[in-house]
Specification:
348 residues, alpha+beta, Rossmann fold, five-stranded antiparallel beta sheet, four-stranded parallel beta sheet, 31% helix
Length: 348
């Protein structure tokens, strides 16, 4: 079969060691050929500049954490999605990339077992959610624990998010002018106008509010699990929290040699099955002692960290209804090709 592979310039397809380090794209393409998958290679800018934008094709494409590329890719992918192309991963999974708020919405729609979470448009709206302090506040994007705060009260929320709401110097000067140095104005068309009311409304309008996600805090946690599903293969590491911190992400303190509960693997499989529109799913999973259930914190369908594969000694796969550990070290490009081929129904 034939697919359209969309990369960045110079065949960049992220990520491996770091977000700025590409996979070996030629090796990946070669691996796909072993499954009788032929790749046409292009980029989003070339596709967008074409007189005929592709339609009715199977498209596997890269994500990016660079803002200009991330939003460009989303715009172009939205158009490709309208033209009856099969996007892998789906457009919903692309919208979830670097958007923890959209993830919270999608987890609800997909009925995923997760800590209670909300997508908030601004600090004022936080009073409308059904969640008691303490809870976790997350900026929409960010990785390695950045932009994740444990808030014990509304003052904490304001303190942590204040850094994202600052006005620029010229905006502060303009507000000062509007408040104290404007002549009284009257508009016959708007009889209820007054300078002070206009000042307050304008101040509210230009204040840089930030979207963010709020998630229920599960107390007493010393670690979580990173599970990477490559179609039916599951790679697992245990990530320990930072010292004196509630976050495991970014601590770079993890285990690969520990006893793994079948219930964790079955829960990860259940989470993955809620996203049948991707060959891969990187999942941050936590165990909630209050109801003895594993819950999905966050997920990514592409452009995820790959230490869980390259530093591991094998993966788990279900055979005849039972989980089995396969001790095998695999190159990431090999696993990418395997997962995509299985997803497309051509894997052996």
């Amino acid at each position: 079969m034939e697919i359209l592979l969309l990369t960045d310039k110079n065949n960049f397809f992220g990520q491996t060691r770091k977000p700025w380090v590409s996979i070996d794209t030629q090796k990946f393409i070669s691996n796909l050929s072993h499954y009788d998958i032929n790749c046409k290679v292009s980029t989003f800018p070339l596709v967008a500049a074409s007189n005929e934008i592709p339609s009715n094709e199977t498209i596997f494409y890269h994500f990016s954490q660079k803002d200009n590329l991330r939003f460009y890719i989303k715009d172009a992918a939205e158009i490709l999605n309208q033209l009856n192309n099969k996007l892998i991963p789906s457009i919903d999974l692309l919208r979830s990339h670097e958007n923890k708020g959209y993830q919270e919405l999608l987890k609800k729609v997909r009925k995923v077992n997760s800590p209670k979470g909300y997508y908030i448009s601004c600090i004022d709206d936080i009073h409308s959610i059904d969640l008691q302090f303490p809870f976790v506040v997350k900026t929409i994007d960010g990785s390695n624990g950045k932009g994740v705060f444990l808030c014990k009260n509304i003052d904490d929320v304001n303190k942590y998010l204040k850094q994202f709401r600052r006005l620029k110097f010229h905006e502060k000067l303009d507000l000062l002018r509007r408040r104290y140095f404007r002549k009284n104005k009257k508009y016959p068309e708007y009889p209820d106008y007054n300078n002070y009311k206009d000042y307050l409304e304008y101040k509210n309008y230009i204040t840089k509010d930030i979207r963010f996600a709020v998630q229920e805090y599960i107390p007493g946690q010393l670690f979580d699990y990173r599970v990477l599903a490559i179609y039916d293969k599951y790679y697992v590491i245990k990530r320990h929290n930072r010292k004196g911190d509630f976050r495991a992400s970014g601590a770079k303190n993890f285990d690969i040699n520990f006893e793994i509960d079948d219930k964790l693997l079955s829960s990860a499989e259940q989470f993955k099955n809620a996203f049948p529109d991707t060959p891969y799913l990187s999942m941050d999973i936590i165990f909630d002692n209050r109801d003895n259930q594993y819950k999905l914190l966050e997920f990514q369908a592409l452009h995820f960290g790959i230490n869980v594969i390259v530093k591991n000694n094998g993966y788990f796969i279900k055979k005849n209804g039972l989980w089995e550990k396969v001790y095998e070290r695999c190159a990431f490009e090999d696993e990418l090709a395997y997962g995509l081929a299985k997803f497309l129904g051509v894997g052996s």
